[in-house]
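User: My collaborator and I are trying to settle a disagreement about how two of our proteins should look. Neither of us wants to argue from intuition anymore, so we agreed to look at predicted structures for both before our next call. Could you fold the first one, then the second, and keep them clearly separated?

Assistant: That sounds like a sensible way to settle it. I'll keep them separate. The first protein:
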Amino acid sequence: MRMQVSVQKLPKSKIELTCEIPAVDFDNYFDKAVENLAKNLEIKGFRKGYVPKEMAKTYLSQKDILEEAANLAVNDTCLKVLEENKIEAVDSPRIEILKLAPQNPLIYKATVSVLADIKLPDYKKIAQNINSKNKKDFDKKTKVEEKEIDDSLAWLQKSRAKYITVNREARVGDNVKLKIKYQKSKIDEPEEHEGILGSGYFLPDFERNFIGMKAGEKKNFSQRIPLGHINKELAGETLDFEVELNLVQEVELPKLGDEFARSLAPLDSKHLTGWRNLQNLEALKQSIKEGIKTEKEEKEKQRNRQELMDEISKESEMEIPDILVERRIGEDLHRLKDSVEGSGMNFEDYLKNIKKTNDDLKKELRSHAENQVKISLILLKIAKAEGIEASDEEVKEKVNEYLKRFSGIADTKKIDPDHLKLYYEDVIRNEKVFQLLETYTN
C-alpha cells in the first residue's frame, strides 16, 4: 500500500499523524464494507447474508458504507503506522476523518500521547552515594530492642486472654460493654461501645465517670470534650452524656512460659516469622525477634528505594503525558472509593462529610499521581538502558500465584488476563531495576 504519512510533534508529549490512503486502496476497503453490511440485509428472494454485492449497494446507504470503510481502513493501518514510525503510544489514538468520499483517497488524522524522551542523570552514581550513606546506619536502624520483644509478647498475651463475666463494679483492666447517648448526637439510638478500661480506648477523663458502675446501671454526667478531639465540631464543648453499662468482664491473661509458647504453634502471626515449632518461651522470643528484624529491614529497604527515586527524579528531565497522570488519578480515586465503601459508608456521604467534591479530590491527588508516573517512567527508562525485562516464565508464575487465591472459575471471570499480565511485567521489571540499583556502593 502506497500510503502517505506526515508526523508532527505537539506540546505535552503528543504526536499528530496525518495519513492518506490512495483511492485505489480505499476502494478495496469500500468493497469489504459492502460485504460486511450486506450480511445483515434481508431482501425478499435472498437468504440473509447471501445478497449479491452489487444488489446490496442499491439497498445500503452510501454514508453507512463510507463510514464502515473508513473504520476498516483506520483499524487496519493506524497501528502499523505507529510501529513503522517507532512511536510508543501510551493511549488509544484519537481519530479525526479529514476526507471521506467515494473513489477518493481517505485522509485521517490520528493524535496520540507518547513517551517523551527522558533525560536521566547519572543514576549509578546517585545510587552509589545513597546506598553507601544508608548502609552505615542500617545495622543501627534494624536492631531489635528487648522492649520491642516484650511489647510483642504482651500483644500476643492479650490476644489469647480469657474474658470472664463478673457481677461487680467495673475497674481499670476490665472489658466493658456500654451504650452512650450524648447531647448534639445526630443518632437517635445510643451508640454501643466495647473496650478495656485504662487501655486508651476511652478518654481518661471520660471513663472515670463509669468506673465503679455495675452491669445494668445508668449514669448521667457532663464532660468537656478535649480541644484536640478527632470530631472538630465537638472539640472544646461541654456535653451531657447518658451511659448504660451492660457488661463487665474480667480479663484473664495467660501466664507467659513454655506452655504459652507451645499453645501458639503453628500460629502464623505478624509478630512471628512464620509457621514453626515453638517448643519454649525462648524459641517464641527468637521468632518474634526475627519477625521484627525482617519488618525493619524491609522498611529500610523501601525507604532507601524511595530516596533513590526521589533523587533520580529530582535530577531527571521529562515531559509527563497528561493521559498517564489522569489514568493514575482515576486509579487512586477508585481505590479510595473502594476503601470507603468497604468500610460500609456511601461514597457520596463521605464526600459530604469531608466537604469536598470529586474534582477537589482529583486536584489533591494530582501531585502524587504526577510523582508516581514520573517514577514509573524513570524505572522503565533504566530498564531499557540496562536491558532488563520480565521473562514469560516469571510473569506466568506470578499470574498463577495470584489466580490461586480465587476459589472458583466464576471469580476469575472478572479478571482481565491481559491487564494482569502487564501488571506483573511492570512489577517484576521494576523489582529487577531496584535490585540492580542496590548493587552500586562505594
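The second protein, kept apart from the first:
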Amino acid sequence: MTHLLTRRTFGGLALGLAASHVPAFAAEPSLADAAKQEGRLVWYTTLVVGQIVRPIIQAFEAKYQGIKVDFVPAPWQETSLRIINEGRANQVKGDIVDGGASFPPLKAAGLIEPYLVQSAASYPETYRDPKGLWTANIIQPSTPSINLDQVKKADIPRAYEDLLHPRWKGRMAWPDSPSVSGPPGFIGTILNAMGQDRGMDYLEKLASQNIASVPSNQRVVLDQNIAGQYPLVLMIYNYHAAISMSEGAPIDWLRLSPTMVSFGQMSLLKNAPHPNAAKLFLEYSLSEEGQSVYAAAGYLPAHPNVPSKAKGLRPDDGQYKDFVLSALAYSEHDKEWQAIYKKLFV
C-alpha cells in the first residue's frame, strides 16, 4: 500500500439518524458474504473527503463490519492518469472510481468493468448507463451566484441575456476548469439552447464582458463571491451555494433557463482486486439508505426517492428547465467547446 492510500475507521455512526427514515438497504447474502471474505476495497475519489467520503465510509463500515474501505482522494485528472498507468502496468490497485470527468478517458482505455447496480434500478435512464458502465451518485446543477450585499434586487439577472448588461463588465468570474462544469460546459449549454449562430453571437458579446477565469474549482470561485471579490460568478454548484446560504452567507444562486446539469458517477474498475466488496459498496452507496447520507451531507442525491436536504435545488423540485449534459456527451464536444473558450475568453 502506497503512502497516498489512506485507511479510515470511525467510531459511532454520526449520520445514522439521517438514514433512519428511508428503507434499510439489504444486499444479496451471497454478495455480502463474498465481500466479507475479501475484507476490503479501494475507492479512488474526487469527492470532498470531510463532507462525504468519510461519512459514507463510516456508514458502510458500520453496516458491514469486517470490510474496510481505503480511499485515494485526488482531482479527476490525477485520478484518471493514476488508474491508466496502473492499468498499463497490469497493477490495478483500485476497485471503484467516481467523478464524471474521470470516466471518458478510463472508458477509452478499456478500464471500466460493466456492473448493473440493482439498488439503482429505479433511477431515471439519464442517470444510469444501460450496460452498467456507470451510475450517477450526485446531481450537479451549474448556476450563477450573486452577492446580495453588492447586487440590487432590480439588477439580479433573470436570463442569460442579462449577463451582457454593461454593469457586469469586469465584475464576473468563473472557474477555469476544462470540464463539463467549467466554461466549456457553459458554452455547450448556450449553443444547445440558442443554436450555433445565435449562440456564437451571444458568446462573442459575453467575451467582451471580461470574465475572470479563476485557476481553481467551483467552491473557491463561490468563496470569492461570498467574500465580495466578485459580485457575480458563473458555473458554481447550486448545492454549494445552499450550504453556504444556510450558514449565513449573503449570496443566492440563479435559475437561468436552461440550467446545465451534470452529475457525478461511480464505476467498477476492470480487474478490480476486490470486486465483490466493490460491488457491495456501489450497491450501498446508490441505495436509498446510502443516498440519504449524501443528502445529509448537502449533496443532491441521484436516487429519485431521496430528497435533497435543501428544497428546490434539483430540477424535479426546483421548477427550472434543465439541460442534462453527461461527461460522455461532453467528451464528444470538448475539443470544440474548449477551442471556443480559448479563442474568446482566454
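Some points you might bring to the call about the second protein. The domain at 6-138+263-301 is CATH 3.40.190.10 (D-Maltodextrin-Binding Protein; domain 2). The chain has 14 helices and 13 strands.
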